[in-house]
Design a protein that fits this description.
The complex is a heterodimer of chains A (210) and B (184). Chain A has 210 residues and is an alpha/beta fold. Chain A contains 9 helices and 5 strands; from the N terminus they run ααααβαβααβαβαβ. Chain A has a 5-stranded mixed β-sheet with strand order 1-2-3-4-5. Classes of the chains: A alpha/beta (210), B mainly alpha (184).
């Protein structure tokens, strides 16, 4: 402290938010907490958001989100709807703050849930947050064909989309407002698991219906 | 925060000449004094101090001014561990070996307590040591991965400001998030 000029130089650019409580997370700058969150596994962010009200706020603003649920049909009813409500509310609380990566796995055996397609609204909410990377997985069957609610307008925002499907893929049709090349569709059909595509490889404004 | 008196190993460890680094930077074995928030002076090799972007830019801004650089946001205990990390990192600058570097980094975090890790993060952030911040944030995330809410709270010293009613409701409404969590 005997050298105030240096003290000022070294502390001016950073903002000394030294926490006065023992809360070590709350004392960290937001971008550091978000960096930690980016390394977390499935549902860890949900638990972190229940630690305190401050944690909830910082989790809601995180650009990295990863949720994974796998419900057996007999216990689906409550848990499913709770998860759906949680994720919808969570995404909407963000008020459009940018999402770097939204990753979710949604595996539910109940037909009722599949027909409801809750992930459509999650994807739309994520697009509303200008999501850069979508990594989504859900069960697909006869009733529940692949149709991503992504319009061509969103392609410029998305850098990477990645989907994984569980279950049998009998037929599927793609949202008619995006053009997919036949080659791409063939590539999708070839592999039931771990389907991966980069939207960058899509022909721009191409409207051949697969 | 520990006071200087009760941590005698700290100063001896840091001030003793490090032979590995001395050989690599033989031409400039200049030392820099850094003073922590709890008034401890660390004498470190210039090459180590230049790993701290904050200190580096301090010298770039005012090259002639010297002797002791105060680090008002940096307590001695985590700082000594940060220096330990940077000394290791410097070796890899001369001989880049990603596998060895990863191994050394994971050994570094493995032997640290939860408290050590959490205390080093603000220091690494303040001193702008990007590699260390990456390593620490990953390590902290690994340690709270799949843990209970209570564990996460005690890990970071978070005060639970939910009422017991709110908390009970959270648990009831988010049963899916509380399943298959590792035991504390």
């Amino acid at each position: 402290m005997e050298n105030p000029s240096k003290f000022t130089v070294l502390s001016s650019s950073k903002g000394n938010n030294v926490p006065d409580s023992h809360d070590r997370l709350g004392g960290l700058p937001e971008h550091v907490v978000h960096h930690i969150i980016s390394f977390l596994g499935a549902n860890d962010i949900a638990r972190l958001s229940f630690a305190s009200k401050g944690c909830r706020q910082i989790c809601i603003s995180s650009p990295y989100l990863y949720f994974d649920v796998d419900f057996a049909s007999h216990e689906c009813a409550t848990k499913c709807s709770q998860f759906k409500e949680f994720l919808s509310k969570f995404l909407r609380s963000r008020n459009g703050q940018l999402i770097q990566l939204l990753r979710f796995r949604w595996l539910c055996d109940s037909c009722e849930c599949s027909n409801e397609r809750p992930y459509d609204s999650w994807i739309c909410d994520a697009l509303g947050c200008n999501v850069k990377e979508l990594d989504i997985g859900y069960r697909i069957d006869e009733q529940n064909r692949l149709a991503l609610p992504i319009s061509a307008n969103w392609l410029c925002f998305l850098e990477v989309a990645r989907t994984e499907f569980a279950g049998l893929l009998h037929k599927f049709h793609l949202a008619s407002n995006i053009g997919f090349s036949r080659g791409l569709i063939a590539e999708i059909i070839t592999s039931l698991w771990g389907i991966y595509w980069r939207l960058g490889s899509l022909p721009a404004a191409h409207h051949s219906k697969g | 925060m520990s006071s200087s008196a009760e941590n005698p190993t700290l100063t001896t460890e840091i001030t003793k000449p490090s032979t590995e680094i001395a050989t690599e930077t033989a031409q400039s074995a200049k030392k820099i004094n850094l003073k922590t928030s709890d008034d401890q002076i660390f004498e470190v090799e210039e090459s180590v101090a230049m790993e701290f972007a904050t200190v580096k830019s301090f010298f770039e801004d005012a090259p002639s001014s010297t002797d002791t650089v105060p680090l008002p946001n940096v307590p001695a205990k985590p700082f000594s561990q940060v220096i330990e990390f940077c000394k290791e990192q410097i070796k890899f600058k001369a001989n880049p070996d990603e596998t060895e570097k990863k191994k050394s980094n994971s050994e570094f975090v493995k032997e640290k307590t939860n408290e050590d890790l959490v205390e080093m993060i603000p220091v690494a952030n303040y001193l702008e040591i990007k590699d260390l911040l990456d390593v620490l944030n990953q390590a902290v995330a690994d340690r709270i991965q799949n843990r209970s809410v209570e564990y996460v709270r005690s890990f970071f010293g978070i005060d639970n400001d939910f009422t017991s009613e709110e908390e009970a409701l959270l648990r009831e409404e988010h049963a899916w998030a509380f399943e298959d969590v590792d035991e504390d």
